[in-house]
Amino acid sequence: MQTLKVDLGDRSYPIYIGSSLLDQDDLIHPFLNGSQIAIVSNETVAPLYLQTLKQSLSGLKITEVILPDGEQYKNLDVLNTIFDQLLKDVHGRKTTLIALGGGVIGDMCGFAAACYQRGVDYIQIPTTLLAQVDSSVGGKTGVNHALGKNMIGAFHQPKCVVADISVFKTLPDRELSAGLAEVIKYGLICDAPFFEWLEANIEKLVARDEKALAEAVLRSCQNKAEVVAEDEKEGGRRAILNLGHTFGHAIETHEGYGVWLHGEAVAAGTVMAADLSKKLGWIDEALVQRAIKLLVKAKLPVVPPQDMTPAQFMELMSVDKKVVDGKLRLVLLKGLGEAVVTGDVPQDLLHSQLEESCK
Ligand SMILES: NC(=O)c1ccc[n+]([C@@H]2O[C@H](COP(=O)([O-])OP(=O)(O)OC[C@H]3O[C@@H](n4cnc5c(N)ncnc54)[C@H](O)[C@@H]3O)[C@@H](O)[C@H]2O)c1
Ligand SMILES: O=C(O)C(=O)C[C@@H](O)[C@H](O)[C@H](O)COP(=O)(O)O
Ligand SMILES: [Zn+2]
């Protein structure tokens, strides 16, 4: 097992990465606040892993909150069902919530923990590649709104993250690929050697080679932990983690939550961001092609859905959380492993990018 630390002063926490960690009771116990626990999971993950997790928590009173499965349920109505269950079972301020699932469960459980009785502890047990490399780390929690992704939420850090790579054995291929989009993101934005390692190992990752997957989770979490430690609440640098997301979130919202997976939308959005960076003269065509080649090998889409128009992109992107005083800010690339957040993209260049991508 490998242990990393997210260094945030008195809100610091460990990330444990390894195989068969779910039933290791010594990992979770030290982070329980009291004897009350609520495990939040969904109808797909619970039948696979809830019993194993509960074995490591024997002797404790556990509330099970099983949500419907899917991005379309990441909303305030479903969030409220978590509160219903916690109140029904009389959970107090010393309860600990445990998120057992992918990013949807992690974001919702984390947000429930941020709100319930003005804030209780929670633990992340991510079960998708995407959740292990990204969503379980960093404390961004929240739900979607019909008009925009993750529009209602809070920063609330977990007490620990347990990333058990054994759970990938049941993960569908499409979900594994979606996770690879965020893995590739780290290489592009801040870790050129990792990008090169991914180019050399992408076939192994797609074939679910355990050693390669463990390395990808470790290096992704190292990168995310470093960025989050520097800028917990996205005052500045943390926004680089949004590469491809301004376009990607527009795709997800337009298509209907759950139709394009988050990682798929991020992949297509990443190519749009790379192309735009090239139009600005910041990177060359060769780097755009390397990014596309890697994403294609990861079995990810590299163009947006063909029913989207530039006008629809512009409208949906206008509510992006990085907009300041009505001005769109985008994460673009200045080189391999070097991202910048800019509000200075000329409108005509952005429009020609959207025209080209929507062809
Ligand atoms: N908070 C953050 O920093 C952050 C970062 C990235 C993404 N996100 C959010 O995360 C969400 C996407 O997360 P996701 O890709 O994990 O999607 P997800 O949570 O919908 O999980 C994907 C699918 O895999 C299933 N599943 C999960 N683990 C499984 C396993 N081990 N075996 C079999 N099936 C399994 C789920 O039930 C679901 O059907 C989006 O809502 C996105 O906005 C948040
Ligand atoms: O942790 C971050 O910061 C990220 O931006 C990670 C992203 O991969 C993730 O999708 C995040 O939820 C997007 O955040 P948002 O603030 O753009 O909604
Ligand atoms: Zn993301």
Structure summary:
The protein is of the alpha/beta class and 359 residues long.
- Small molecules bound in the structure, each named once: nicotinamide-adenine-dinucleotide, ligand LNCXM5UN, zinc ion
What gap, in angstroms, lies between the N and C termini?
47 Å
Uncertain ranges: none
Reading the helices and strands in chain order gives: EEHEHEHEHEHEEEHHHHHHHEEH
CATH architecture of the largest domain: Up-down Bundle
Query: Can you tell me the CATH topology of the largest domain?
Result: Dehydroquinate synthase-like, alpha domain
Oligomer: single chain
- Helix residue percentage: 40-55%
Q: Give me the number of helical elements.
A: 13
The strand line-up of the biggest sheet is 4-3-5-6
Full CATH superfamily name of the largest domain:
Dehydroquinate synthase-like - alpha domain
Which percent range describes the beta-strand content? 15-25%
- Tell me about the largest β-sheet: 4 strands, parallel
What is the gyration radius calculated from CA atoms? 20 Å
The CATH class designation of the largest domain is: Mainly Alpha
> What characteristic shape results from the CA principal axes?
globular
Q: Structural class of the secondary structure composition? A: alpha/beta
Indicate how many domains the architecture comprises: 2
Instruction: Give average pLDDT, whole number.
Output: 97
Instruction: Count the E strands.
Output: 11
